[in-house]
Design a protein that fits this description.
By secondary structure, the protein is mainly alpha-helical. It has one domain: ABC transporter involved in vitamin B12 uptake, BtuC (Orthogonal Bundle), CATH 1.10.3470.10. The protein contains 13 helices and no strands.
Length: 293
């Protein structure tokens, strides 16, 4: 499927670029789909927004720092700083919500507002000073996977594979934690460890997905596939399979749409396909339930 999609995304001179884009997108889509089931079960949909917007604040910081330190005026440095911001935010939210000093939603809302505002302020200052270099904020909010390097593709595939392996290795503990944290703790599940681990994995998907669909839309990869799967079935195997298939189809279809109509960004196209898939799953699930009744 990936090879076929890469072939239709461009001519022979662009085939390698197309393959890298599809491989990275499909890998991130699979990792996001696997985690999305647990994100929906734990009602952590808003968590992805907080971490993603923290990344945008990190990008704004890197853009400002590039004025004083020109060595930071490149995509790799900018995304590294965004990664630090995202991981720091994930750990802060995990700690606050775990200790219940502030409710989870409130903690995430604080970071969403602060980091998104700071990102726009930083880009505004950079533009006011007339500095060149980093692309406009639209690329960071909406994503731009065109021209992704082999190293970035390998990193996306490796991180995604690590996330999937980790989840399946600990799936019993994670499922029990998601359904009933109190029971999980009583039965000996290291609830604190699972809590921090899940949030860290969510952060990693967002970090590698920022290039794919941008800070604004990458949380959709962590919500819509799982939501679609849970509308179809209550069997975890079926739910996970549906989520993965839906995510891979959406990510590849989004790239095809973007290459066919260049004025459409890949990120919005992917999320639109995911939303359509969710609608199909929603009405199919509703129909099957009414039939049983």
């Amino acid at each position: 499927m990936i090879l076929h999609a890469a072939a239709i995304l461009g001519d022979s001179s662009a085939a390698s670029d197309a393959f890298r884009a599809v491989a990275a997108s499909a890998s991130v889509g699979i990792a996001g789909a696997v985690l999305s089931v647990f994100v929906v079960l734990r009602r952590w949909a808003y968590l992805g927004d907080g971490i993603a917007h923290a990344g945008f604040g990190g990008i704004g910081t890197a853009v400002l720092l590039s004025i004083a330190f020109p060595a930071l005026n490149n995509g790799t440095a900018i995304y590294l700083i965004a990664t630090v911001f995202s991981l720091a935010t994930a750990l802060a939210v995990a700690s606050i919500s775990r200790r219940r000093a502030v409710s989870g939603d409130a903690a995430i809302g604080i970071f969403v507002a602060a980091t998104l505002a700071w990102g726009f302020i930083a880009f505004g200052i950079h533009a006011h000073l007339g500095r060149g270099g980093p692309g406009g904020w639209e690329d960071y909010l909406l994503g731009n996977i065109n021209g992704i390097s082999s190293a970035a593709t390998a990193l996306a595939v490796a991180v995604s594979a690590g996330i999937v392996i980790t989840v399946f290795a600990l799936h019993r503990q994670i499922i029990l934690y998601c359904f009933d944290p109190t029971l999980a703790e009583i039965t000996g599940v290291p609830v604190g460890f699972v809590h921090y681990l899940l949030i860290l994995l969510v952060a990693l998907v967002i970090i590698i997905g920022m290039r794919l669909s941008g800070n604004l839309l990458v949380p959709a990869l962590l919500v819509l596939p799982g939501a679609a799967g849970l509308r179809v079935s209550r069997s975890m195997r079926v739910v996970m399979a549906v989520a993965i298939v839906a995510s891979v189809i959406a990510t590849v279809a989004g790239l095809v749409v973007s290459r066919r109509w260049e004025y459409i960004s890949p990120g919005p196209a992917m999320v639109s396909v995911l939303f359509l898939e969710f609608l199909v799953a929603h009405f199919a699930g509703a129909g099957s339930k009414s039939g049983r009744d």
